[in-house]
């Protein structure tokens, strides 16, 4: 039963210099097996190469020993979903996520044409805005079925991305949304890149709730992507970091709020050359679930709802932000609502940001496990605070939405 705890793990590790990342030696590992048993890829493959501690050996070679890694080591390293479940359970509190990103940056893999295109779309808001009407026309045209049958999408390696498409929002959000009630303050909303177009209902729900609780909402047009997709794939996120710090620090607001937990995880880990500016940005950065919970007016009563709701806890929320309890507490403000934790929340759904596109086979296996859990829950609705998780699961037949959307629907009429 606990054979994974006895796997051989004895490679020597070079000592870190004063300015190098600390990576513990194999002998320092407590061999508790917690990181192994929590790893989703080990759950699928049951081999030592697909464990955090084995990946850590590869990371050590890259960062400390300055040695090349084999193709097999690279493949197993790249199979990591970056869910960071191992980091959460490790008694030594290993900063695995940070080390993984540093290793990917050192490897500097040249992206292929498809990855380059994806990076450019994330980087360039003007390109995305121009692309959205064409995507809307495509979805309405009836071309999806014949194009899928033709096999062309698979040949171009676009089939997995095309399967995720939903109707995009074509109109830009306003730059300011005044409070509906007596104004208590002003906040800024981080909208993200892809979510700005494909998760518009969540952003509008966030604005509606903030306005109802007395907050004016600002949405700066100059903001950029959080940078997570670039950083987790070995690309530089410096321009995103610098832009967002500059744009949001220039605003006279009480807080900078995010609705997608994966973006929040990246934003909360920002580092830049200007330490003072970075600290100011971090001090005002708040997950919207936490913000609403702490500032909910006593006299704002929501309409009752008799649905049975299961809460999916995204890895970015459970393992990085660690504020999943705020979702349960917020939902409890809806009278008659039945709320339960989705079983096996500790296991990643497979979305992993761009992982569902770069590793569709592994992601698909984890997706199937999560779908089984959702079906067994008998829930009327599953809520998730991460955009990518909801997109991935919804594209394959599940029904997920952000908890903010449910809360906004239960607001009394003005």
TrEMBL record:
Signal peptide: none
Reactions it catalyzes: glycolate + A = glyoxylate + AH2; (R)-lactate + A = pyruvate + AH2
Protein's recorded name: Glycolate oxidase iron-sulfur subunit
Superkingdom, taxonomy of origin: Bacteria
This enzyme's EC code(s): 1.1.99.14
Cofactor comment: Binds 2 [4Fe-4S] clusters.
4Fe-4S ferredoxin-type domain ranges (all copies): 19-50, 71-102
Matching SUPFAM superfamilies: 4Fe-4S ferredoxins
GO molecular function, one term: glycolate dehydrogenase activity
Cofactor(s) in the UniProt record: [4Fe-4S] cluster
Keywords linked to the UniProt accession: 4Fe-4S, Electron transport, Iron, Iron-sulfur, Metal-binding, Repeat, Transport
Species for this entry: Candidatus Methylobacter favarea
Function comment: Component of a complex that catalyzes the oxidation of glycolate to glyoxylate.
Enzyme class: oxidoreductase
Pfam family, one: Fer4_8
């Amino acid at each position: 039963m606990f054979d994974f705890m006895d796997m051989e793990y004895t490679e020597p590790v070079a000592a870190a210099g004063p300015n190098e990342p600390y990576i513990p030696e194999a002998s320092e590992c407590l061999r508790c097996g917690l990181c192994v048993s929590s790893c989703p890829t080990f759950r699928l493959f049951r081999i030592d190469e697909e464990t955090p501690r084995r990946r850590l050996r590869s990371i050590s070679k890259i960062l400390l020993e300055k040695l090349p890694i084999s193709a097999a080591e690279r493949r197993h390293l790249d199979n990591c979903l970056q869910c960071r479940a191992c980091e959460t359970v490790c008694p030594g509190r290993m900063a695995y996520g940070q080390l993984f990103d540093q290793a990917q940056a050192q490897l500097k893999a040249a992206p292929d044409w498809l990855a380059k295109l994806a990076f450019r779309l994330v980087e360039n808001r003007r390109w995305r805005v121009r692309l959205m009407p064409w995507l809307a026309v495509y979805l309405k045209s009836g071309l999806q079925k014949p194009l899928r049958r033709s096999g062309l999408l698979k040949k171009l390696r676009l089939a997995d991305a095309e399967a995720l498409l939903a109707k995009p929002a074509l109109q830009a959000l306003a730059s300011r949304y005044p409070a509906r009630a007596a104004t208590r303050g002003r906040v800024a909303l981080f909208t993200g890149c892809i979510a700005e177009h494909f998760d518009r209902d969540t952003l509008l729900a966030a604005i509606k709730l903030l306005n109802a609780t007395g907050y004016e909402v600002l949405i700066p047009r100059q903001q950029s992507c959080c940078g997570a997709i670039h950083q987790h794939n070995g690309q530089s996120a410096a321009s995103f970091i610098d832009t967002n710090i500059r744009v949001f620090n220039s605003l006279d607001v009480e807080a900078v709020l995010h609705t997608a937990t994966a973006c929040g995880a990246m934003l909360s880990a920002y580092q830049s050359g200007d330490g003072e500016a970075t600290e100011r940005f971090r001090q005002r950065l708040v997950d919207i679930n936490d913000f609403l919970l702490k500032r909910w007016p006593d006299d704002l009563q929501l309409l009752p709802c008799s649905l049975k709701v299961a809460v999916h806890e995204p890895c970015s929320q459970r393992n990085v932000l660690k504020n999943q309890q705020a979702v349960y507490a917020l939902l409890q403000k809806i009278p008659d609502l039945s709320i339960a934790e989705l079983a096996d929340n500790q296991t990643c759904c497979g979305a992993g940001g761009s992982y569902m596109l770069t590793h569709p086979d592994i992601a698909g296996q984890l997706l199937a496990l999560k779908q089984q859990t959702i079906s067994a829950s008998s829930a009327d609705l599953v809520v998730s605070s991460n955009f990518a998780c909801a997109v991935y699961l919804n594209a394959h037949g599940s029904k997920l939405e952000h908890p903010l959307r449910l809360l906004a629907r239960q607001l009394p009429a003005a």
